[in-house]
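Input.
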Amino acid sequence: MLGPQAALDEVQSLAADLDLYHLGHATRAELLRQLARPDLARHADERALSLTANPAGRALLEQRLAREAPRCRLAADRPPLKTAKGSTPMATTEEGLQAQIRNIEATYGKTMSEGITKHTDVVSMLKSDYGMTNGAAHRVSLVARERADPAVGSAPDADPASALYAGKKAALRPLHDALINVVMAFGDDIGLAPKKGYLSLRRRKQFAMIQPSGAGRIDVGLILPDLPAGQRLEPATGFNALFTHRVRLSSASDIDTELTGWLRQAYDRAR
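Output.
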């Protein structure tokens, strides 16, 4: 489980890209508060406030700044809070996303359950209005739909992979999400179509698939008819006749430049 420092490090690594993006600074402020660094959190919120003219977004940030003002001077002299075992309380990356989602809803003027409900519309809005990458927009949309309104999870356009990771396969979901983030960075024309036992990745036509295995791994099917099979790039014979190759993933380290290159080739050929 990632803590607030790890999540903050991820946000900091994108600092150059997010500098003119007010929700990036607001997310950073939320993480800094979790790390008991109120002065820096206030500075990040002030930066976020300077970057938005939306009345709802400004009101939220101004309220937060006013609420936190009396605490900043006092908290600066205190060490971080400790748990019974002496460790700093941990937070998940999803909690950081939730802070971002709350700011998005305030800026947009409605909650996910009050009209921003269709996944593709949310992704489009996040990309056009907030400058998010395709992969980041998909991730934020799916987390928001699941957390803000659980009933949305059963909607026809809900997370297309949720049913694949039920039960014992749930532990593979982070690996799936990491892989999806890589694929979605290729372009904004990728469709995700749930099939029996796997998720189809489509452009104009299908180019790959993601299938969680009961053996504790994820199988990636690729359509690369001109590429010879190798030790890692296995032939898909006996796996799925719709694909030419299979790659087995057991950990995030398997999502490397080699696999990304194969996925990119399959994506490029699906025009």
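Residues 4-154 form one domain.
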